[in-house]
Design goal:
180 residues; alpha/beta; 19% strand; single chain
Length: 180
């Protein structure tokens, strides 16, 4: 006779209970992870002076974008996480483009970025630059995304792929627009 805890039903119950505990811990981490919340008291970014060129050839400067909250992502056409993220940022732009500035910045050749945008059907604002980013936006990994308030405060920073279609990310964007 085998012990009662080795029956298929008991094994299934133990497996489900373990899954429940693990998923709960994961949910707490995802919900309460400091990097995934807005920092409404975030540091004011000094010298956001960053010269950019739109794919239409128009000169822009990040420092002059203080009319709305700004969503700034630094990416590249050769970066696999960036390629996964760009359609999601396109969706964000379609949904929130009237309420916040979008600046998707690449250090690549404008022709390469333009070809990529056309192949992918991207219509969001894409920029290129030869300048290094401002010190306050130092970039170590691609993609790197910043949400910057109208007053120039860093509200959010994320390195690596982010699912911007996720309900938590959408909530974060709404909060940034409302409070930033």
């Amino acid at each position: 006779m085998r012990p009662h805890w080795t029956t298929p039903r008991t094994t299934l119950l133990i497996a489900l209970a373990s899954l429940f505990v693990i998923s709960g811990a994961l949910a707490v981490c995802l919900w309460d992870c400091p990097s995934e919340r807005l920092d409404l008291e975030g540091p004011t970014l000094d010298k956001l002076d960053w010269n950019l060129v739109s794919l239409l050839g128009e000169a822009e400067n990040l420092a002059l974008r203080s009319d709305k909250v700004s969503f700034v992502t630094v990416w590249a056409t050769w970066c696999p996480p960036c390629l996964r993220e760009m359609p999601k940022i396109q969706n964000l732009h379609e949904r929130f483009g009237e309420q916040m500035n979008f600046l998707c910045i690449s250090a690549e050749d404008p022709g390469e970025v333009r070809r990529f945008a056309q192949q992918q059907g991207l219509t969001l604002p894409l920029y290129t630059t030869d300048d290094s980013p401002p010190q306050s936006l130092a970039i170590e990994n691609l993609p790197t995304t910043f949400i910057i308030s109208r007053e120039g405060r860093l509200l959010f920073r994320h390195e690596g792929f982010k699912d911007w279609d996720d309900s938590g990310a959408l909530s974060l964007i709404r909060q940034a627009i409302k409070k930033g």
